[in-house]
């Protein structure tokens, strides 16, 4: 079976599991406006102490997320770890969060309610260049209220990170059972987000309670890309 046929079958399973129809295409900006993120030093925190301190946060400070904190969180949890010659290219990116087969299928979107130097809206993280691609500058709060099944996360999270997976990339290489593995890939990234957020002194919480269609619409996802997890983040209260 071709990768395209497998992707179609996986999307059918995905829609069935989420009681979803094919999403209406809402195309956001092309992301041509790029905002470089500042260089940051890695947090100096003991690994086991960080594992022991990690919590899901339900109380957040009502203030802008500092740009250096956002930059460090993205860089050290879902940024590029190294470039290697692979898949026919000299500089193939491998992430701080590994994926099965090293496939470049995880994407991170940054939904900004309030963050330093960023207009509220939707951005896509570009790990290879450590930039944000601006997709839309509409206030995301009304959409987020439909996205979170627990709407109390909306006023908590200064920023909501959304992890997505490119099913077309997955099924160009692997058979249909890999639908499960892409969720494991996302889980690895979630633990990185928890640990790096903790090491940076940020408050964060993984959130799987979201409306798939509403989130796909907010992010303007193309059909073969599915949202897998949300991560609410802000400064600790
Ligand atoms: C994959 C995953 C999904 C989660 N989804 C939610 C969620 O939708 N809503 C929520 O309030 N907490 C969510 N949590 C947080 C868990 O409830 C929390 O991790 C658990 O109660 C243990 O608490 P701790 O993280 O402080 O150790 C999620 C955690 C994980 C790992």
Q: How is this structure best described in words?
A:
The structure is a single chain. With 237 residues, the protein is of the alpha+beta class. The protein is 35% helix and 26% strand. It has a single domain (3-235), classed as 3-Layer(aba) Sandwich (NADH Oxidase). The protein has helices spanning 3-17, 47-53, 67-78, 141-147, 153-156, 167-173, 178-199, 212-219, and strands spanning 34-36, 80-86, 89-95, 106-112, 121-126, 131-136, 159-166, 202-207, 225-235. The strands form 2 sheets. Strands 1-6-5-4-7-9-8 form a 7-stranded antiparallel β-sheet, sandwiched between helices. It has a two-stranded antiparallel ribbon with strand order 2-3. Strand 2 (80-86) and strand 3 form a beta hairpin. Helix 2 (47-53) crosses helix 7 (178-199). The longest helix is centred in the last third of the chain and has 22 residues, at 178-199. The radius of gyration is 17 Å and the shape is globular. The model has no long low-confidence stretch (mean pLDDT 95). Bound molecules: flavin mononucleotide (FMN). Flavin mononucleotide (FMN) binds at residues 55-56, 150, 190, 205-209. Residues 55-56, 150, 190, 205-209 line the site of flavin mononucleotide (FMN).
CATH topology name, in short, is NADH Oxidase
Radius of gyration: 17 Å
Cofactors and ligands present?
flavin mononucleotide
Q: What's the total helix number?
A: 8
How many distinct beta strands?
9
CATH class: Alpha Beta
Q: Which architecture does the CATH hierarchy give at level 2?
A: 3-Layer(aba) Sandwich
With strands numbered from the N-terminus, the spatial order across the biggest sheet is 1-6-5-4-7-9-8
**Rounded average pLDDT:** 95
Please state the structural category: alpha+beta
Order of helices and strands: HEHHEEEEEHHEHHEHE
**What is the number of domains?**
1
Strand content: 25-35%
Helix content: 25-40%
Query: How would you describe the shape?
Result: globular
Largest sheet: 7 strands, antiparallel
Low-pLDDT residue intervals, each spanning 5 or more residues: none
The CATH homology group name: NADH Oxidase
Distance between the termini: 52 Å
């Amino acid at each position: 079976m071709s990768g395209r046929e497998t992707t179609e079958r996986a999307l059918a399973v995905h829609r069935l599991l989420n009681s979803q129809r094919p999403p209406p295409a809402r195309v956001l900006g092309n992301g041509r406006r790029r905002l470089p993120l500042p260089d940051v030093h890695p947090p100096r925190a003991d690994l086991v102490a960080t594992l022991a301190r990690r919590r899901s946060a339900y109380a957040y400070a009502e203030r802008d997320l500092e740009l250096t904190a956002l930059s460090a969180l993205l860089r050290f949890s879902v940024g590029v770890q190294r470039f290697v010659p692979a898949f026919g290219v000299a500089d193939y990116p491998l992430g701080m969060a590994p994926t099965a087969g090293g496939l470049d299928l995880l994407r991170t979107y940054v939904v900004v309610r309030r963050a330093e130097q960023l207009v509220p809206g939707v951005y896509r993280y570009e790990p290879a260049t450590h930039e944000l691609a601006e997709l839309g500058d509409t206030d995301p709060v009304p959409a987020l209220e439909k996205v979170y099944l627990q709407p109390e996360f909306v006023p908590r999270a200064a920023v909501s990170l959304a992890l997505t997976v490119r099913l077309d990339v997955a099924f160009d290489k692997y058979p249909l059972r890999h639908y499960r593995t892409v969720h494991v890939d996302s889980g690895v990234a979630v633990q990185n987000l928890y640990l790096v957020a903790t090491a940076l002194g940020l408050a964060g919480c993984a959130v799987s309670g979201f409306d798939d269609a509403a989130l796909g619409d907010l992010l303007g996802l193309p059909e073969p890309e599915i949202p897998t997890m949300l991560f609410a983040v802000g400064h600790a209260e």
